[in-house]
């Protein structure tokens, strides 16, 4: 039986993201929709978000305009679709600190946050660099980094040092240093709570943007194509892509990709009145479907 119900909840999208930013080397082939989504895990003990989105009603607006983000809805409205409030979120595990993953810190007033220590420290270093290096901060809001440090001082931002099992019950994190960002991590959910679980999911953050990153368009003769926008080492990302798929014994539908709209075709899903998809990946015992 599943310990966690798992939903993927779209909260915004970029309607015209360059394909080349998603799949490395796909230049001059146009644009496609890039959804932004939360992943919600709900057990009897915990209500957890994997990444916390952005706050387009406030400081996130600058990034909304920079990247043409559309159709943003607040977490209060998005989570209401599955009967959850932002106040109920007790933990947020952050894959990395980009604006669309860590821009919503202040919207979850009762949450504690977890991030790789190297990710947080790395962004402080980049912020202190000369202005000519500002491209490195292109998807990172300095205000988010400052607020994350403030939360650390208050004991609400927990730094994780590398790979760690059971950061919460049945949830493990794996650091991929110098990849999409300096301290990106992916998150493993063992949904039966067993150490040698055969009910595993892996949440990729932005190490993966598309199922196609795993096979390059031909699953029968896979060629791993790294995502198209990373700040670190592409060879590292290629090997991490392989590792991620091995975490779930090659079962691609157990890979939860926050920017992959095709998740809505893999699992039961519906479209809300705001035009966002809700994907129901798993239901814990006693939970009713939200689809
Ligand atoms: Zn992202």
TrEMBL record:
CDD domains: AHL_lactonase_MBL-fold. InterPro entries: MBL_superfamily_lactonases, Metallo-B-lactamas, RibonucZ/Hydroxyglut_hydro. Signal peptide: none annotated. One of its GO terms (molecular function) is hydrolase activity. Gene3D superfamilies: Ribonuclease Z/Hydroxyacylglutathione hydrolase-like. Keywords: Hydrolase, Metal-binding, Zinc. Its cofactor is Zn(2+). This is Metallo-beta-lactamase superfamily protein. It comes from Pseudoxanthobacter soli DSM 19599.
């Amino acid at each position: 039986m599943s310990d966690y119900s798992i939903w993927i909840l779209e909260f915004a999208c970029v309607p015209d993201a360059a394909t080349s930013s998603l799949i490395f080397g796909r230049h001059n082939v146009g644009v496609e929709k890039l959804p932004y989504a939360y992943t919600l895990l709900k057990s009897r003990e915990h209500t957890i978000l994997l990444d916390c989105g952005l706050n387009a009603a406030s400081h996130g607006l600058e990034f909304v305009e920079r990247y043409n983000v559309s159709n943003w809805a607040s977490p209060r409205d998005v989570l209401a679709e599955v009967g959850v409030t932002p106040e109920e979120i007790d933990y947020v595990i952050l894959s990395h600190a980009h604006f669309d993953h860590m821009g919503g810190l202040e919207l979850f007033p009762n949450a504690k946050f977890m991030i790789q220590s190297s990710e947080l420290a790395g962004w402080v270093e980049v912020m202190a660099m000369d202005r000519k290096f500002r491209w490195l901060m292109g998807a990172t809001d300095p205000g988010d980094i400052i607020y994350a440090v403030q939360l650390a001082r208050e004991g609400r931002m927990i730094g994780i040092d590398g790979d760690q099992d059971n950061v919460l019950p049945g949830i493990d994190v794996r650091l991929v240093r110098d990849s999409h960002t300096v301290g990106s991590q992916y998150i493993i959910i063992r949904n039966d709570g067993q150490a040698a679980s055969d009910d595993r999911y892996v949440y990729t953050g932005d190490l993966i943007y598309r199922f196609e990153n795993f096979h390059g368009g031909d699953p029968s003769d896979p060629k791993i194509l790294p995502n198209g926008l990373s700040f670190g080492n592409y060879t590292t990302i290629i090997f991490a892509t392989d590792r991620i798929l091995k975490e779930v014994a090659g079962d691609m539908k157990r890979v939860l990709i926050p920017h992959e709209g095709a998740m809505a075709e893999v699992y039961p899903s519906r479209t809300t009145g705001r035009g966002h998809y809700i994907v129901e990946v798993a239901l814990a015992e006693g939970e009713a479907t939200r689809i």
